[in-house]
Design brief:
- A hairpin with a 2-residue loop joins strand 2 and strand 3.
- This protein is mainly beta and 464 residues long.
- The protein starts with a helix and ends in a 25-residue tail after the last strand.
- It is built from three helices and 30 strands.
- The strands form seven sheets. A six-stranded mixed β-sheet has the order 21-19-23-28-25-26.
Length: 464
């Protein structure tokens, strides 16, 4: 018999990949990513009856809530055992039946395509449980879902926002960074008070070369409430510059350092509580290119991973606030690429053409969790975490700690859409997803549906 977690992982990954081909949607009652509508239900007791209780968003706390979908949307239902009795969830019309969840805290996931309109029962099939009250409705309505207007500023850094390579000798370079506190979009129906370098997450990509004298001017916007600073991991000296850059609102500080070591380095705010400032979005990358620079590539991208600790659960609509208690106990509600839920899977997806070489500058702001970075269906041909060693070759997954970074390179050899994930896969269910879209035909010699004898002559554009 397969363990519960096995089918949960397989079903979720299938839903993730199927959702990549659907149009973006958003809705207050659930979490929505690229047409994947995610509902979470917890078993419980209400008015002396066994019931399903909604978790998060507009269904939060509701008994046997209606799960509302639009025709053509992909649905995912997460079932959590809330009180210890054995349960499952069944939707007969769609042929959906979850694994049983046994013991408090156990969970299972099912997914299906809502391809027919109407009202369909969901229920627990354990004998007697449906009759005891574990019965609700899935409502599939015609038409497309209308996206609400944004509820905060766009704080996502475009991953293509990378300055050009450095082709020169050493000199003094100046970087001006402004720290800005602002209400931004965390998810389609959720806002958050972010702290940023330059109003985007991550902060600007800084590019220097070995031997440069780097001069950093830190401006703290006068609208800020708090002091901010910067710790440059690529600098040698106590605090990485933080002791010289504790900057009050409306003020400016300056720190200069010699770029003595080539590499890709994290920078972050180092004003106490440091973890709080980092979690709110204050991190970025500095590249110190080696003498002679990096090999030429066709595309360069800038991606960073972080986590947020909010008072309300993942997916709750409205304005979220920081939970210091969750921060210090390391219980994040959100994991994100470039600051916001699913942003790199939608308008900021990475894009390349067939045959191009791709370089990703990847870092982890954290503050607490490492990343097992992976692109589903790709192999990293070269990986650098420093320039003191030869690059690692042919890596499937790259481990990057909080405050660490890696340079990843590969050639796009097969057209299609590729998911960017942390291979701690449950984090995708908390907002951590992205996409690389390779424009061009598929390469049947690398992969095709059906037996190996199929002709490789048939090709089609998979990026549409």
């Amino acid at each position: 018999m397969r363990p519960e977690g096995t089918s949960r992982f397989v079903v979720f990954l299938a839903a993730l990949l199927l959702a990549a081909h659907l149009a973006p949607t958003s809705v207050g009652a659930v979490t929505a990513h690229q047409g994947l509508m995610v509902f979470t239900l917890r078993s419980g007791i209400a008015d002396g009856r066994m019931v399903f209780l909604g978790v998060g968003g507009d269904i939060d706390g509701k008994v046997n809530p209606d799960l509302v979908l639009r025709e053509g949307e992909m649905a995912q239902i997460n079932l959590i055992n809330g009180e210890g009795a054995e349960h499952d969830i069944v939707i007969d019309f769609y042929g959906v039946r979850s694994n049983r969840v046994v013991g408090k805290g156990a969970s299972a996931t099912v997914s299906f395509l809502a391809d027919k309109t109407g009202s369909f029962a969901y229920f627990c099939a354990i004998p007697g449980h449906r009759e005891s009250g574990m019965l609700g409705k899935v409502r599939v309505e015609p038409g497309k879902r209308i996206s609400p207007p944004p509820i905060g500023a766009d704080i996502t850094r475009d991953p293509s926002d990378v300055p050009p390579p450095v082709h020169r000798g050493p000199k003094t370079v100046r970087f001006d960074l402004k720290t800005i506190e602002l209400k931004g979009r965390l998810d389609d129906n959720t806002s958050y008070q972010f702290w940023t370098f330059g109003g985007k997450i991550p902060g600007p990509f800084l590019r220097a070369r070995l031997g440069d004298m780097v001069e950093v001017h830190l401006h703290n916007d006068q609208s800020s409430v708090l002091a901010h600073s910067i710790d440059m991991h690529g600098a040698i000296g106590p605090g990485g510059g933080a002791q010289f850059t504790q900057t009050n609102p409306g003020e400016e500080t300056v720190v200069s350092f010699k770029a003595t070591t080539p590499g890709l380095f994290v920078y972050h705010c180092a004003t106490p509580s440091i973890a709080n400032h980092i979690a709110n979005g204050m991190y970025g990358l500095l590249l110190v290119e080696p003498e002679g620079g990096l090999p030429e590539v066709d595309r360069e991208f800038y991606v960073m991973q972080g986590e947020l600790y909010t008072t309300k659960p993942f997916g709750a609509a409205g304005e979220q606030e920081m939970s210091y208690e969750k921060l210090v106990s390391e219980r994040p509600e959100y994991f994100v690429f470039n600051g916001a839920v699913g942003a790199l899977a939608k308008e900021y997806a990475l894009r390349a053409r067939l045959g191009e070489t791709v370089r990703i500058f990847f870092g982890v702001g954290g503050p607490n969790f490492p990343s097992s970075f992976h692109i589903v269906g790709e192999i990293f041909e070269r990986v650098r975490t420093s320039f003191s060693d030869l690059p690692r070759k042919d890596a499937q997954t790259v481990s990057v700690p909080p405050g660490g970074a890696a340079i990843l390179e590969f050639k796009a050899r097969h057209g299609g859409r590729y998911a960017l994930v942390d291979h701690a896969m449950s984090r995708a269910e908390r907002g951590l997803e992205g996409a690389l879209i390779v424009e061009g035909p598929v390469n049947d010699s690398l992969m095709h549906q059906g037996p190996a004898s199929r002709s490789s002559a048939k090709r089609e554009d998979a990026s549409r």
